[in-house]
Amino acid sequence: MEKENLIRIGLTNREAEAYLALLQSQEALASEISEKTRESRSHIYDTLKSLIEKGLASYVIKNNKKYFRPAPPEKLISYLKEKENLIQKILPNLQELYKPKIKKPIVEVFDGKEGIKTVLNDILKVNKEWLCLGSTGKSKEIIPYFLEHLHKQRIKQKISLRAIYNDDKLGRLRSKEVSKMPYSKVKFMKKLSPSTTYIYGDRVVIILWEKEKLLAIMIKDESIAKSYKEFFEVIWKNIN
Fold first, then answer.
1. Is CATH 2.60.120.560 the right assignment for the domain spanning 2-75?
2. Is the pTM value of this prediction over 0.70?
3. Residue 67 class from Cβ within 10 Å (0-12 exposed, 13-18 middle, 19+ buried)?
4. Distance in angstroms (rounded) separating the CA atoms of residues 75 and 68
């Protein structure tokens, strides 16, 4: 058990065996440690040298013979602290190397009503202007009570909403309700897609508002969100 734990803190198998043998002997010749560990004399000298370099062993000369002694077990704590100090010293450089050269987009998929609620709550959390492209007006049919709460909180937080609704019966009906809300503006365009795109902060969310297949795909990336915002602005400026 002790041997395995010594290996866990950084000693090699040979170093752990030699150190334990030294602790038992208190003082011993290399030949005696070799016999106890069943390690050849040529190897045991290398192992003992390594323990000395780690501060876990020392030696004295008696009658022209070299006797090895173990460092007290408490020295293991100092040994670990030295390793920790070394890690702390090189940590900034290691962290710099670990940083990705290119920040990759984060893509998450949210499924069902609870997943959509997570997305809508995220709009409140990010607390930035909310752009809505290709709104179908189906959201009220699927999550009516939650949607009411969402808009109340949005207005309380003064989050602006600009929505481009599909120019159909359902889109027109829902837009009348939203346009009456504070911090809200609506426009219309011909129906292009059954999905809706939300843009806010550094997020782009594509939602499929279908009861049997309710799904949202969120992309977190500043450059992608920026390009979608620019695209939205072009459409917004060119429709009534």
1. no
2. no
3. middle
4. 16
